[in-house]
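Why does residue order matter? Because the sequence determines the fold. Keep that principle in mind as you read this record.
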Amino acid sequence: MDQIVACCNSGTTAIERRAKLFRGFADPSRLAILDALCDAPLAVHEIVTCTKLSQPNVSNHLRCLLDCGLVASDRDGRFIRYRISSPRITALLNDVDVLLDVVAEGVDACDNYRGT
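Structure:
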């Protein structure tokens, strides 16, 4: 892969795009929402129940996930159901869990990216 070629004529390199994508995954609340959506599409109130996050927090993070293209939405009567936008996202999250089986000790010991 040529990492210094600009992507989509935007002047953004492939590395910068990857970093931007991973920032979308970097928040524990967004990961909790994605995890909840891996099983089935859910409405906001169902996501709130699954994640124990507040409704405003869920709505805020869903907006970010929608803007980033990581989730999609469909109207279901009076509700909007959110779903993972691509099965590759679910596969990536599963691959991360497998990778963590290998590197968890180092990740746990890392002081560079402590949660707040």
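Residues 3 and 15 are 6 Å apart (CA to CA).
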